[in-house]
C-alpha cells in the first residue's frame, strides 16, 4: 500500500519503510485516528485511562513485534521508531503507555529473562492480555539511581524478599507484571524481578495532580517484605549494566516520540494559520507566522533525520550509548522549542484543550525529563567524545 504522507515529513522519510512496514504503520494510523484521537483531550483532562482500548491495541498485533516468542517477523528499528512517532503524534500519553509496556517491561524480560521466563510471559504480553510496567526510579533517586538505588532484595529459601519504594512508575496502578529493580543485599548488585499483581507486600497508589501525560497512570509503589518466587528473578539481570542496556534501547524510542510531538505541533499550528483570520486575511499570509512555522518544521525535519540514522545504526549493529543519548537530548530539546512556537502562533487559543496544542506543550515536559534528563544524556555523550567521565 502507499501511505498518505505524514504532514511535516518534508523529505519523505516515511517512504524508506518497505511495503509491508507501511501496511503495518497504516493500520496503526487508522486505529489511532478512529479510536484515540477523538477521546485524547477528554482522557487527558480527566486524567483517566481508556482501558477499553487495551484489547483493541492487542488486536493490532504490534506489541509483540521483535520478540521470538510472539508471532510476526522481526521488524526493522525504522518501523518500531515510526510506530512510536505515530502514536506520539496523536497522543503522547498513549505512546508512553505502549512504550512502557513493549519497550521497558517486555524489553527487560526479552533481554534478561531465561528461555522459560520469556515463554511464560511474553506471548500474553504481546497479545496485551497482560500489561507490564518498569520500576526503577525511586522517591529520592532519579539521575543517581545507578549508585543510589535503595530498594533491596534478600534471598530467603525459594523466594526473594523485596523492600523499598518506587516512584513515577507508568502503568503501575494496573499492570499485571511489574519489573522491579533492586539491590541484592548479598553482593550489592542490582537485579531484576518480575512482581505479579496482587503479590502480598506490593502496593501501588496513583500519583495525582500531574500537569503532563495525565492519561498515563503513574504510581508510587511500596514493597514491604514483598515475597517474590525465585523463578521470577530475571536470570540475565545481574548488575546495573543490564538495566542500562534496556534504557539504551528505549531512550531512542523517546527521541522518536519527540519527533512525533513536533510533527503534531507543526501540523496543528499550520492548519490553524490557514484557517485563522486577522486583519481581514489568514494569518498564514504574515511573514512572522511563516517564520515560526518554518522554524518548527526545521526542528522536526532535523530530528527526524537523526532518528532515522539512529535506526539504521541499530539494525547494522553499530549502535552505542552515545548515539541514543545524543538523540534523546537533542530531539527533546528541539521539541520543547517547537511546541512553544506552536503555542505562540496560536496565542490565547493555544492554552485551550479544544485547540490541541496545549496538551502537547504540557506533555513535552515529561518527555524532556524521562529516560534520562538532558544533562545526564549530555554527560554520556561528553564521556564518549572526550574519553573523560564528568559524572559526580
UniProtKB/TrEMBL annotation:
The keyword Transmembrane helix does not apply. InterPro entries: ACX4-like, Acyl-CoA_Oxase/DH_mid-dom, Acyl-CoA_Oxase/DH_mid-dom_sf, AcylCo_DH-like_C, AcylCo_DH/oxidase_C, AcylCoA_DH/ox_N, AcylCoA_DH/ox_N_sf, AcylCoA_DH/oxidase_NM_dom_sf. GO terms for molecular function: acyl-CoA dehydrogenase activity; flavin adenine dinucleotide binding. It holds the Pfam family Acyl-CoA_dh_1. Residues 133-226 form the Acyl-CoA oxidase/dehydrogenase middle domain. GO terms for biological process: fatty acid beta-oxidation. Its cofactor is FAD. The keyword Oxidoreductase applies. Keywords: FAD, Flavoprotein, Oxidoreductase. Its EC number is 1.3.99.-. Residues 245-385 form the Acyl-CoA dehydrogenase/oxidase C-terminal domain. Residues 21-129 form the Acyl-CoA dehydrogenase/oxidase N-terminal domain. It comes from the Bacteria. SUPFAM superfamilies: Acyl-CoA dehydrogenase C-terminal domain-like (SSF47203), Acyl-CoA dehydrogenase NM domain-like (SSF56645). Belongs to the acyl-CoA dehydrogenase family. This is Acyl-CoA dehydrogenase. The lineage of its organism: Bacteria, Bacillati, Actinomycetota, Actinomycetes, Streptosporangiales.
Amino acid at each position: 500500500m502507499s501511505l498518505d504522507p505524514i504532514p511535516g515529513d518534508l523529505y519523505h522519510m516515511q517512504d524508506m519503510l518497505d511495503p509491508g512496514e507501511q501496511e503495518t504503520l497504516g493500520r496503526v494510523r487508522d486505529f489511532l485516528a478512529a479510536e484515540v484521537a477523538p477521546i485524547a483531550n477528554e482522557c487527558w483532562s480527566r486524567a483517566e485511562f481508556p482501558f477499553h482500548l487495551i484489547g483493541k491495541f492487542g488486536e493490532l498485533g504490534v506489541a509483540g513485534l521483535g520478540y521470538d516468542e510472539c508471532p510476526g517477523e522481526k521488524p526493522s528499528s525504522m518501523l518500531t521508531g515510526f510506530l512510536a512517532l505515530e502514536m506520539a503524534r496523536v497522543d503522547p500519553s498513549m505512546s508512553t503507555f505502549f512504550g512502557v509496556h513493549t519497550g521497558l517491561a517486555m524489553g527487560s524480560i526479552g533481554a534478561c529473562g531465561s528461555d522459560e521466563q520469556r515463554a511464560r510471559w511474553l506471548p500474553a504480553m504481546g497479545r496485551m492480555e497482560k500489561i507490564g510496567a518498569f520500576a526503577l526510579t525511586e522517591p529520592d533517586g532519579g539521575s543517581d539511581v545507578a549508585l543510589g538505588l535503595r530498594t533491596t532484595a534478600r534471598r530467603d529459601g525459594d523466594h526473594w524478599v523485596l523492600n523499598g519504594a518506587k516512584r513515577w512508575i507508568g502503568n503501575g496502578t494496573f499492570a499485571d507484571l511489574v519489573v522491579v529493580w533492586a539491590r541484592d543485599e548479598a553482593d550489592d548488585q542490582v537485579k531484576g524481578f518480575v512482581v505479579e499483581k496482587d503479590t502480598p507486600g506490593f502496593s501501588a497508589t496513583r500519583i495525582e495532580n500531574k500537569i503532563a501525560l495525565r492519561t498515563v497512570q503513574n504510581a508510587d509503589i511500596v514493597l514491604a517484605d514483598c515475597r517474590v518466587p525465585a523463578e521470577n528473578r530475571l536470570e540475565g539481570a545481574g548488575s546495573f549494566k543490564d538495566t542500562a542496556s534496556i534504557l539504551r534501547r528505549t531512550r531512542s524510542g523517546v527521541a522518536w516520540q519527540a519527533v512525533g510531538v513536533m510533527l503534531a505541533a507543526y501540523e496543528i499550528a499550520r492548519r490553524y494559520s490557514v484557517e485563522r483570520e486577522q486583519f481581514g486575511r489568514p494569518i498564514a499570509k504574515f511573514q512572522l507566522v511563516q517564520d515560526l512555522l518554518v522554524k518548527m518544521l526545521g526542528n522536526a525535519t532535523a530530528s527526524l533525520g537523526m532518528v532515522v540514522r539512529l535506526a539504521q545504526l541499530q539494525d547494522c549493529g553499530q549502535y552505542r550509548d552515545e548515539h541514543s543519548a545524543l538523540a534523546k537530548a537533542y530531539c527533546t530539546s528541539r521539541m520543547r522549542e517547537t511546541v512553544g512556537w506552536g503555542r505562540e502562533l496560536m496565542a490565547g487559543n493555544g492554552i485551550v484543550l479544544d485547540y490541541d496544542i496545549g496538551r502537547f506543550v504540557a506533555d513535552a515536559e515529561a518527555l524532556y525529563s524521562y529516560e534520562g534528563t538532558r544533562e545526564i544524556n549530555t554527560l554520556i555523550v561528553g564521556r564518549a567524545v572526550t574519553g573523560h567521565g564528568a559524572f559526580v
